[in-house]
Amino acid sequence: MNITVQRYLCFAIVVAAACAGCATTGHEQSRVAAEKSWTRLRADMKAGLARQQFDRGEYLQAYVAITEATRLCPDNPAYHRFTARCCIERHEVPAARIALDRAEELGDKSAELAGLRGLLAEHQRRPAAAADHYGRAASIEPDNPDFAAAAAECLIELNRRDEALTLLNRHIELCDRDPRLLHLRAAVFDLNGQPKPAVADYAELYANVSDDPAMEERYALALMRAGDFREAVSLLEGIIDREDRDDEESGNAIRSLARAYNRVGRQNKSRTILQKHLRTNPDDAQAWWLLTEAAMADESWRLAQSSICKGEFLSPARLEWSLANAYISWRLGQTENARATLNTLLAEHPDLPEARAFLGRLNSASPDQSKK
Q1: What is the largest CA-CA distance in the chain?
Q2: Span 258-269, pLDDT tens digits
């Protein structure tokens, strides 16, 4: 065999060996890729199961499932975030913090991560930290109303209303005027003693959100604070007889409507709804006071005195009962009784300006003038 043939044979052997090696390596790579794909699929199935269990409130089962998914794919930050959610619901604060830290170590800079840190801080009763985390989440996803609403709620709780208002003003337009954000801004305006802008937000909500009696009632109260009692009456009359309202909600609406009736001079309507309400809720001291106001405006002195007697028994610390009693005594010509009531009241509350001014008027008036 000549040298040339030998060289070709050697070369063929080398090429064949190399090809065999390539085939082996390619097969191994395909096998590894297939195993990784299968592992990711199993992990995703476990994570999907965990989400379903979480939505059903089965937090322990969800935690077990997401832990298995994390074991299969430990480098997926979403699994660590979901683990933290399960831990938060189960009040396992240290484990939740570890899961969130691990997600962050894996490069997670998502709004959801910041939001979960805010939720964890809320569970720990740290509203200032929660506000910071939720605010960070809102800055990452400025068009997500959930984070903006959560941040605003924490700021309101902290009495940082100006900051809450600034945040809400910034995100309301970005979130397509989300009803939750409008509702929160209206609440801040109310707390700040700004009824007119509160009314504007409630009006927009009322036009776009149907069948929300609680919101309508807050709208009516804002109208009353803004001095628009007639519009408030119209709103409250529309919700007062709705079904599926518990006793507390109905009582609030009835008292609000009675107060509005008193302000627009419809005391007869106020008396009707209050007397009906008090037949089944005789322990409602505020309703007795509103009935007293309505009766006094109509000069129904006997009804007013009866209402005062019942209301004062329920809420003896309320000073208006004594002032009203003194006023009724004066209107009935019982000036000495009025003076005695006011002197007793001033003995206990010497700095009460209304009582002092009323007594001064009685003491300086002539017998004929004292009845006017």
Answers
A1: 151
A2: 999 999 999 999
